Amino acid sequence: MENVQEYFRKNRDEHLRQLKEFLSIPSISSLSVHKEDVQKCAEWLADQCRSIGLENVRVFPTKGHPVVYADWLHAEGAPTVLIYGHYDVQPVDPLDLWETPPFEPVIRDEKIYARGSSDDKGQVFMHIKTLEALLETEGKLPVNVKLIIEGEEEIGSPHLPEFVEEHQQLLAADCLVISDTDMIAEGRPSICYGLRGLAGLQIDLTGPKKDLHSGQYGGGVQNPAHALSELIASFHDEKGRVAVEGFYDRVAEISEAERKALAALDLDEEEIRKELGVPELYGEEGYTYVERTSVRPTLEVNGMFSGFQDEGIKTVLPAKATAKITCRLVPDQDPEEILQLIEKHIEKHLPKGVTYQVTRFDKGEPFVTPLDHPAIQAAARAYEKVYKVPVTFTRSGGSIPIVATFHKLLNLPVVLMGFGLPSENVHSPNEHFHLENFDKGLLTLSIYWHELNNSLR
Amino acid sequence: MENVQEYFRKNRDEHLRQLKEFLSIPSISSLSVHKEDVQKCAEWLADQCRSIGLENVRVFPTKGHPVVYADWLHAEGAPTVLIYGHYDVQPVDPLDLWETPPFEPVIRDEKIYARGSSDDKGQVFMHIKTLEALLETEGKLPVNVKLIIEGEEEIGSPHLPEFVEEHQQLLAADCLVISDTDMIAEGRPSICYGLRGLAGLQIDLTGPKKDLHSGQYGGGVQNPAHALSELIASFHDEKGRVAVEGFYDRVAEISEAERKALAALDLDEEEIRKELGVPELYGEEGYTYVERTSVRPTLEVNGMFSGFQDEGIKTVLPAKATAKITCRLVPDQDPEEILQLIEKHIEKHLPKGVTYQVTRFDKGEPFVTPLDHPAIQAAARAYEKVYKVPVTFTRSGGSIPIVATFHKLLNLPVVLMGFGLPSENVHSPNEHFHLENFDKGLLTLSIYWHELNNSLR
């Protein structure tokens, strides 16, 4: 490992320069105005893969944004690893809250600031640089590697399942490794063994055919903003539980053992409360903060709007009101069924005087991996050699909808080894990535491929 | 009257050209970016007053937008009329719904389209042209006239009360005439004898100090969009009544006679429903549509927003949620007290896990005038001579907050004779004004000043 370590040291400035180049491409997958940037980002990534000696590099077009594929398959007799990541990023609004522009990466206090630095470009880039270092210093990789980096993760990977289904042979492997989750805290490396699923939808309520004068018409017709508020309020009960009928029917109750393991994470709720800046933590009665954010399902409004939004007032009775909602799901909830239950709920609780329309967004199944799998245990050893502390095993509240698809279609164990931190403003202004974990992560991954070869061979 | 009628006919094109000039000034009082336009509009109006022979023309600065004053006081022994109007207009969003730009007036199908064409520049302009016609054809006016045209009506006239209080001598008159209300329908001239009052406020709820990843944090903290929805839902009960404690305490119940008069308006609710495009009319149980929109108080959300509002989804748990609300009030509700009751309600019903801030907007007292006042009866005669049908007496759901102030400070009877139509998209895209009522209105006002001289002398 010393040669590899030396390689990373010697090339650090150049690697960071390349990372900045990667981060400066505004590959926002949800906004059609950035479609060309997403394509450009895929090409950049493919060039990187070629330049470090990966083979069969391809930018596969899809009906949406492209998938980048590359491999190196000369570790005869060694296991094959599929590495998944994404090069697309979240939108950047509110732009005025960014201290420096989201696509002009800068390093401050040993953190690199840019949209995508932590989620997930920074972590994708670490995988590439790890492979580069091993190829440069050892002349080969300890395992066979296939990279699949997609451009639609932030919009729910609408076209990846089809791609995976069509390329099962190409993607066949012994284990899937993903770096798109968080360490539990600074200095506490974590392996995530479960992810929540996702079910997203938009509700549009329509009242009058145009905005009305709230004096002349107010009191005469339903106000869609009132109706939407009632509807949203009806989604939860006074105990913070989701009040959609049947929502919890398939939720696997967590075992006492798992509750103990989660409690052992020893998160300081008062510390969390202070860091988030809320007057109090709040959520489903009977569960701790860590349980509510990892093993319990949720229904959250991500955005809502109706009527006048500029400064001052405008005395209108709005014609429309919209809410954007996503649910986080846990085993064994089914995203399709959950969307159906919500639609039933809307139909049943729709206030008088408005009509509604539901648009479905992305779906993803929840996922949990056995903790004692050798691929996971090898990852734990790699972490411990670099970070010098025991690894924490967690379940994340986030969703990587494609994980369940990979598992189902390719029948793979999944190892989620993330190097981000919860404080890194993922999906928010001033996203950043700690260079300490960039440096340690490169080493951890280098060691991991050797450990994995020993475990799975 | 024949000379006057002939004058209007001969000068119609020139008058419409001038009106277009007036309407092309974007005097949006609520948006600070238009401050200079509002000033320019006041100057334009003052020039008009000078050019038709009014005297003592002044553009009075205020702490906000200016007040335009002008008079003609040579009708010895005749009563003095104070004419009030406003030259400011509402914002124009959503701009993409306008068929032609809001500040590029055009005439289509004998209607003039522009922001302010009906509310209230078009009607202010009619008053000026009426005075011009009488001065040009009869060499004098039948009554003494004082004009006060303000630039802050659409933001609740924040500085006019102070102005009126400081200029009681200047504004002293026998009667106040305002043309800023609607006719009840095409061909049905109406005199409005009551206006609802106004109380506006903005509620800002704050949860976490920044937008959070809804996967990582969802379920752990209160979502301000949920909290706002609950709060808004709590403002009404299941019978469509405002559920703010004490809200109805001072509401004067309408008499059977008044209910009968309102019923006699003979509005076709099914026709209204169709025109508004709603699946059903909705509002406070136990009252008809016309009662709910004129003699009953309301609480309406004019705008609300939280979190992500662009296309697609963004999986955030929003940091903030905002609602803009106005109440329409009826005698004897007090705007100040209503705002206090709402603030108490918010404090009491605030969901857990968020903090709130209330910003007060404008206030205006409700107002009702005796129907049998000679100034009102004179107006009815003037209308009937031109429109050849009996006048309808109405109470409007809208608010002209300054009316109560004038009444209180100057002790004046108020005559609300409006020439707008409810279908003219006031406060909405494609505002317009029917030229038929422009033409008939000019004649009606010309006759009214003579009738008023006979009644009040």
From TrEMBL, chains A, B:
Residues 193-353 form the Peptidase M20 dimerisation domain. It holds the Pfam family M20_dimer. Gene3D superfamilies: 3.30.70.360, Zn peptidases. InterPro entries: Cyt/Met_Dipeptidase, Peptidase_M20, Peptidase_M20_dimer. The keyword Hydrolase applies. Keywords: Hydrolase, Metal-binding, Protease. GO terms for biological process: proteolysis. GO terms for molecular function: metal ion binding; peptidase activity. PANTHER family: BETA-ALA-HIS DIPEPTIDASE (PTHR43270), SUCCINYL-DIAMINOPIMELATE DESUCCINYLASE (PTHR43270:SF12). This is Acetylornithine deacetylase/Succinyl-diaminopimelate desuccinylase and related deacylase. The lineage of its organism: Bacteria, Bacillati, Bacillota, Bacilli, Bacillales.
